[in-house]
Amino acid sequence: MYHITADYHTHTRYSHGKGTIEDNVLAARKKGLKRIAITDHGFGHIGFGIRPKDVDMMREEIQRLSLKYSDIDILLGIEANLIGMDGTIDIPEDHMDKFDIILMGFHKGAIPKSFKDTLDLFGRNAVSSFLPVDKDKTRKQNTKAMIKAIYRYPIRIITHPGAKIDIDTRLLAKHAAKRNVALEINASHGFMTAEYVRIAMREGASFVISSDAHHPSKVGDFETGIQIAMEAGLSPDRIVNAGIAKLT
Ligand SMILES: [Zn+2]
Ligand SMILES: [Zn+2]
């Protein structure tokens, strides 16, 4: 059994979560967590993305809460969107160091970088389920874009790899291991199957089990993720938030 001490992926009202930052912090403390990251959606997500001006407000709030609750680390993070085939994410360079931790994932609601990216990254993926597009090529392109992103930016976690977008798990895991980027076993999506975990394990990848809570009651709810990790026979020392939190 794993002892998970940190939840690195939680949403609040700043994007489309139901609770405040404090609600998530209180829920995490109740579950005995030692660290929580507030990771709302990147600026480019239509409707759900936080606004650049929210970042300073969130930081102030987190500073205030850190003084109030000294028994937990509260990190300001973001779940950035992959928006270009060249690995571009939706956080401008001058905003990168405003965050304690950067997560990156693929979301269909994000605005692509250019018209060509709309076709390649979004169009191709959108039609691949019902049109005979070259699935291998699509998978290769998606994987390449994600790999480029982790070499360009200080990304620490890839959220729900394989969800919403087809990727080559083995190749992504190989580069994630090289860049010390953790692959997420997402307890809400459940897309990372035990089989994927086994493939990624063999490439030396590290993992993080996250709740991806959109409601405070789900913060620290790792059950599905733990089951997947156990089924895969994943050793706790490969899980960055098991035992003493090792990220950042
Ligand atoms: Zn996500
Ligand atoms: Zn999320």
Task: Please summarize what this structure is.
By secondary structure, this protein is α/β, with parallel strands linked by helices. It has helices at 21-30, 52-68, 115-127, 135-152, 169-179, 194-202, 223-232; strands spanning 6-10, 35-41, 73-81, 101-105, 155-158, 182-186, 206-210.
pLDDT < 50 stretches: none
What portion of the residues fall into strands of 2 or more residues?
15-25%
If you average the pLDDT, what whole number results? Answer: 91
What is the architecture at the second tier of CATH? Alpha-Beta Barrel
The end-to-end span amounts to 24 Å
Count all strands and give the number. Answer: 7
Q: What is the highest CATH level, the class?
A: Alpha Beta
What structural category arises from helix and sheet content? alpha/beta
Radius of gyration: 17 Å
Helix % is 25-40%
What would your notes on this structure say?
Strand 1, helix 1 and strand 2 form a beta-alpha-beta unit. The protein is globular. The protein has 248 residues and is of the alpha/beta class. One zinc ion (ZN) binds next to loops.
